[in-house]
Amino acid sequence: MSAADLRGIDTWIFDLDNTLYPPETEFMALIDDRITEFVMRETGLPRDEARVLQRRFLDDHGTTLAGMMGQYGIDPFHFLDEVHDVSHDRLVPDPAVRAGIARLPGRRLVFTNGSAKHAERVLESLKLADLFADVFHLEAADLTPKPRPESYASLIRTHGVVPATSCFFEDNARNLAPAAALGMTTVLVGPHALDEAGDFIHHRTLTLAPFLAAARLSA
């Protein structure tokens, strides 16, 4: 793929999980299992049925948490603490990713459906925390997850984001649609990036580092 022309971008917004590190680490599988265990305990469902419910909530609401709050009234902060309490041994700093992010001119933000504590720990494990001005996490969004439009509006309001000069990197295609509708440039990242359809996906890359290294940027 040719180098992306990202001249004029001054705000760089990155999803966290499976975007700033490759999904091949299977780090999110650890969290996914913790979520299943939580759903099993709170609903009394066997594992296979709990997995189905977990996926349905994720598809319908953006996060399993949102569905569990709506139907089971669970404590969201207990949920976030419990499901993110996993080992970070699989997260290995990538100098190429760091170099790619570091060359981006302007402000850099993280926009995640994860908790504040989770984001802080992941960024520290990846040795990327110092490259970002701030993290817009689930608590900052009043527990309203991507892809709900209110979450993007809150990000824009909180951080004074100008969509027309912003670029959003995500591994989940549906989370790019609201960003594109607002006028952001979008980049789909990950092993399935070339398979997804949608004119709201402006750029695609299988892995993050080469895309960032090759991108044409403002001086």
In brief, what are we looking at here?
The protein is about 40% helix and about 10% strand. With about 220 residues, it is an alpha/beta fold.
Could you characterize what this model shows?
The mean pLDDT is 96. 42% of the residues lie in helices and 11% in strands. The relative contact order is 0.20. The chain has helices spanning 27-43, 47-61, 64-72, 76-83, 95-102, 116-125, 149-159, 176-182, 208-214; strands at 11-14, 107-111, 134-136, 166-170, 185-189, 203-205. It contains nine helices and six strands, in the order βαααααβαβαβαββα. Strands 3-2-1-4-5-6 form a six-stranded parallel β-sheet. The longest helix has 17 residues, at 27-43. The protein has two domains: 11-23 and 92-214, 3-Layer(aba) Sandwich (Rossmann fold); 27-83, DNA polymerase, domain 1 (Orthogonal Bundle). It has 219 residues and is of the alpha/beta class. The chain is globular and about 55 Å long.
CATH superfamily of the largest domain: HAD superfamily/HAD-like
* Unreliable residue runs: none
CATH architecture of the largest domain: 3-Layer(aba) Sandwich
Strand order of the largest sheet: 3-2-1-4-5-6
How many helices?
Answer: 9
List the helices and strands and how they pair.
Layout (H helix, E strand, L loop, with lengths): L10 E4 L12 H17 L3 H15 L2 H9 L3 H8 L11 H8 L4 E5 L4 H10 L8 E3 L12 H11 L6 E5 L5 H7 L2 E5 L13 E3 L2 H7 L5
Parallel strand pairs: 1-2, 1-4, 2-3, 4-5, 5-6
Helix pairs in contact: 1-2, 2-3, 5-9
Descriptive key words:
6 strands; 9 helices; DNA polymerase, domain 1; Rossmann fold; six-stranded parallel sheet
